[in-house]
Amino acid sequence: MEMMSAMTPTDQKIVSGTMNKDTAVLKVIGKMEGKKQYGTIEMKKKGGLWKITKEGWSDTEKK
Question: How far, in Å, CA of 25 to CA of 42, rounded?
Fold first, then answer.
């Protein structure tokens, strides 16, 4: 788990998002080693709680 947190950008901020019933997609930005990172986080609502189902990061912004 410690290795995963070392590979996750810091200073994360949600810049946009969409929701459709029990699924949501968040567009986020953060920093890793001082460089801006762009992320997409997919979530699903299960048992009344939102759970991350997929997370991806890149140093280039996807349109």
Answer: 5
CATH architecture classification, 2-58: Roll (3.10)
What residues does each domain of the chain span?
A: 2-58
Residue with tokens 């609502």: 45
Return per-residue pLDDT of the chain as tens, 63 residues. 454 556 789 999 999 999 999 999 999 999 999 999 999 999 999 999 999 999 999 999 876
| Alpha carbon distance 49, 47 (integer Å) | 6
Three-state DSSP at 5 gives helix
